Amino acid sequence: MNPHRLKAYILLLITTIIWAIAEPVIKFTLGGFSPIIFLTYRFFLASIAAVVIFSVFGFHFPKDTKTRIELLIYALVTSTFSLGFLFFGLDKTTVLDTMLITLVSPLLISFAGVKFLNEHITLKEKVGMFIALAGTFLTVVEPFLQNGHSLTRFSGNVLIVLYLVMTTIGAVLAKKLLRKDVNPLTMTNTSFFVGFITLIPFALPQILASRFQILTTPSLPYHLGVIYMAILSGTLAYFLSIKAQKTIEVGEAAVFGYLYPIFVAPLAVVWLGEKITPLFIVGAIIIAFGVLIAEIKKKRYNTSS
């Protein structure tokens, strides 16, 4: 195997583990902080880390005006919008639902790669994507079918779907910026600066109104959850993910998302006490079947090419 590709796979595996653990961490930490305070606190810590990183490695902001605008759009999509939908969604729904819905993310990113980056997708991949999306739809509407029209959980699932859309857009923008040789560190840390700047106007009034008690009252484990999200799931994981994508295709990198359930499901059940329902199992089977069709065909195509 090409050593550069092997390095990219290792980086993506590390990133996958960090982000898989992140979902239960977010759900737990939301027990101590509201989504808007959690996000702003996280971006604040990540921005401090960014200042340190830039002071050591330098700040390489693009000189081209168009590229600068694309970078700022990327930062807004991957911070304020993407993580905003994820955090507010997880505040309303379960980690298990989130895990199932996000399983279609690699397929959506692969499809976006075809539309916007001239990457390849086969007919069987399209069929597999359709089946997986059907399973995702079942997961999204499960609250209505399972326990009497649970609007809160349903709205959380819808927010997770919007998070997927933002993630897909972010993946395409990241690949375009990398093709223009924008530094991965610059991309990562610009996202955190933009996230903090755009959210602080909403969080600061709440912080001041509570005389900072909204930050000081939660116990240490909740603060550790924010630190995990800011430094490990934020600065480190974003940098590793972007760096790895310089070597391989967007769709290929997204496949690592299928490993999430290995880490997410046990934590959700054992740590958070969530329940696996019959409808959850049906949705998981349908999604897994669709993914299997899409990815087996992809593997054969890549082998023969």
Describe the model.
The relative contact order is 0.22. The protein has one domain. The protein is globular and about 50 Å long. The protein is mainly alpha-helical and 305 residues long.
Structure described in brief:
This protein is mostly helical and 305 residues long.
| Percentage of β-strand residues | under 5%
- Element order: H for helix, E for strand: HHHHHHHHHHHHH
Helix content: over 70%
Helical run tally:
13
**Stretches with pLDDT under 50, minimum 5 residues:** 297-305
Q: Compute the CA-based radius of gyration.
A: 19 Å
Rough outline: globular
Helix and strand content put the structural class at mainly alpha
Domain module tally: 1
Distance between the termini: 15 Å
The biggest sheet amounts to: none
Question: What is the number of strand segments?
Answer: 0
Q: Average pLDDT value?
A: 85
